[in-house]
Amino acid sequence: MYVAAKGGEKAIANAHRFLAERRRGDPRLPEVGVDQIREQLGLAVDRVMAEGSLYDRDLAALAVKQAQGDLVEAAFLLRAYRTTLPRFNLCPVLDTGNMRPLRRISAAYKDLPGGQVLGPTYDYSHRLLDFSLMEPQAVSANVVYLVDKVGALPSGMPRLTELLGSDGLVESSEAARDDEAAVPDITREPLEFPVCRSARLQALARGDEGFLLGLAYSAQRGFGFRGHPFVGEIRMGYVPLEVELPGVGLKVRIGSILVTECVMLSRTEGAGACEYGFVQGYGLVFGANERKAMAMALVDRALRSRELGEEVRYPAQDEEYVLRHCDNVESSGFVQHLKLPHYVDFQAELVHVRQGGGKEDRGEGGRGPASAGCALEER
Asked: How much is the average pLDDT of 71-99?
């Protein structure tokens, strides 16, 4: 991790003061509260929780406020705070089949058993600015919240992969899953290539949404795997969270967390095609973030190319390229470290240019950096 840490003490104090003034904005306007960010900028909060690897809506909202809405910086703040927290227990594997769904759709089956639940989504809205939102909205005392009407997941809502798996048309989730006893923790153990799928999914889950979205797009356009992927199922809702009491063996429910899960289905022409008709790509992220879950599932599918006997040719299929660069905290730190003083390095380059190194590098007879260096020397 690279961070700026040097400078004059007085100058840094003034920079912090100036930043605080910019963050607050016009003091004549009401200050935005953390509770307002948590409730009204929920998708931003969810993204920060996912990329910050910490499920806490209040802390994520605080990070968004502190970072002035810069979600990459907010994820950095949240992840830095996460490293200070003790770990006192591990929870058993979450069963998303017990999800209390707010949204559940499939693009593969129209008449999905259990029904399609559209839920809260922008998919069916017109992309037109709603100028009525510029004014405060009146809230009726008799308002009925739809979220309170959402019940437990009915038994008649099976997973699509279970339906296809019963006919041998798709690989089972167990077949594509690592041994649970060997699941590593990438927050404590560095990635070692080649990585197991569970570690890969952890890295993707907290990877930068924009980076993964670009890779997913490249994979769809043929720079990852052949064939058209299908959204087998997307589920978004609350999943029970349990812990097992040490020495007792008793599982206790301590609450629930909001997650988004996506299963992508696609064909394969590799060696894995002999056993299954469809293979899976999987995505699971904190909060309501199905674009990230879909991108994650597509990239996961592309990264399975070697396992499935497909030719590995493109960036989306290269696990070291993807996993080394998808982390926005690491990427941001490395890019921003360029703002730190590099005076000695630049002077060394300048000497090289003045001695004619630019001619060999450019092959332009002294044009470019070499001539620029001469101009600096003349001045």
From this structure: 91
Mean pLDDT to the nearest integer, 273-288:
85
DSSP 8-state code for residue 278: B
Please give the Cα distance from 251 to 51 (Å, whole number).
Answer: 28
Q: Do residues 243 and 91 make contact, with C-beta atoms less than 8 angstroms apart?
A: yes
Lookup: tokens for 330: 């690491």
pLDDT at 377: 37
| CA R_g for the chain | 25
272 pLDDT exceeds 60? no
Contact 262, 234 (CB under 8 A): yes
Mean pLDDT of the chain: 85
Give the residue ranges of DSSP H helices in 270-318. Answer: 290-303
Q: Is 274 a residue whose pLDDT tops 70?
A: no
- What's the confidence (pLDDT) of residue 167? 74
Q: CB of 311 within 8 A of CB of 233?
A: no
Residue 259 pairs in a beta bridge with: 237, 286
159-167, long-range: CB within 8 Å, 24+ apart, which pairs?
A: 159/97, 159/233, 159/263, 160/106, 160/108, 160/109, 160/112, 160/232, 160/233, 160/263, 161/232, 161/233, 161/263, 161/265, 161/280, 163/113, 164/232, 164/265, 164/277, 164/278
Q: Cα(1)–Cα(337) distance, rounded to whole angstroms?
A: 9
The DSSP bridge pattern shows strands 100-105 and 251-266 to be unpaired
